[in-house]
Design a protein that fits this description.
The chain is mainly alpha-helical. About 95% of the residues lie in helices and about 0% in strands. The termini are far apart. The mean pLDDT is about 95.
Length: about 70
């Protein structure tokens, strides 16, 4: 084989390796984006539940205060 052919084969192998790595990174990136979306959604739901719980607790405390006053 000529030196140029060898260099082309090395380059071809490198390009194939880079393509495989790029595909892997793209897949990982896609999965991470989905996880992030799920976590953002879960956080929003938990914040909503937390606010509801705070409201309910405040209502209970207000009723206790009113009970103590009367």
């Amino acid at each position: 084989m000529s030196k140029i052919s060898e260099q082309l084969n090395v380059l071809r192998t490198s390009v194939e390796s880079i393509k495989k790595n790029m595909n892997k990174v793209e897949m990982e990136n896609s999965l991470l984006k989905k996880q992030q979306e799920d976590l953002v959604s879960e956080k929003a739901e938990l914040v909503k539940k937390n606010e509801l719980a705070k409201t309910e607790i405040q209502s209970i405390l207000d009723r206790i205060k009113n009970f103590e006053i009367n």
